[in-house]
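Journal club prep — side note

Before the paper discussion, L.F. wants everyone to see what a predicted structure for a comparable chain looks like in token form. Sequence:
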Amino acid sequence: MNPRSSLAMGLLVRVIARGVVSSCSNVVASTSQSSLLAATSAVVLRLPSRSIATTVRRQIKSSNPTRIGHSLVNLRNVKMLGDRKPFSADFFFRQLFDEKSWTYTYLLADLNSKEAILIDPVLEQAKRDAQLIQELGFTLTYALNTHMHADHITGTGYLKQLLPGTISVISEASGAKADKHLKDNETVKFGRFEVRAASTPGHTNGCMSFIVDEQGIVFTGDAVLIRGCGRTDFQEGDARTLYQSVHEKIFSLPDNYRIYPAHDYKGQLESTVAEEKKYNPRLTKDVDAFVEIMANLNLAYPKMIDKAVPANRECGLYDIPKE
């Protein structure tokens, strides 16, 4: 065999060997060489040439088991990320951002009825949000807050003026004023869709997560952040309560549910239940370790808390910007 043919054969063998490893990764529970070779037998026997089959076996046998193990882990991660529900064709979703408080606001709507809701609006962005809603031809039916925020003033009160007919919503346990107060497992409807409220106290005593089961999404407020969680050292916060809330109400959701938090400080947009159950550096610990972590964060006093909390008790109805 001339050098060029030999090189071509070597490349073919590597390609086939990698294909065999990839094909068998779904059925191999162990990353040992012997298990992998046994699993590849049926595939290798179907190769067009005995010499190629023999060489492929040698290539697999000489492969690094650690690399094969990493391939299997990667395949499991692909599966974890590949089962997400797509949004239905009549469901509208838009994620908005306030750069000062690092807050995410979420606009959801029924594209047929044009009824919309906002989750966690920010006062300084209320005019932006109202303009977008009008441009899209939506009617804002509800403006919801996941909790009584300490790092910004809610835009709910101002939106009620900008878009008359808007109904403000917050949990009954929050102690804040609103047109509608929710208890655990109550729902808010917009068009044919509904948001289910899940009580998730711990960051504050009035925290709620909002779940749209049909779309496989949960808005966690500050209860679960991407690879983190809200602090528990003010507003009746309690680390043990937060841990219980998250594990019972959020981590009990299907793994493929997408998580949308109220904040992110590293530019990440979303996560999943599966990811946070596996990679969240705080909430993957046992409860006692979690409580210890939260007790030793040594975070600075929130800059906006003395202004935001009193305002948000009134649903943001004071300190509205003048036109």
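L.F.'s comment for the group: The chain is about 35% helix and 20% strand. Keep this in mind when we get to the figures.
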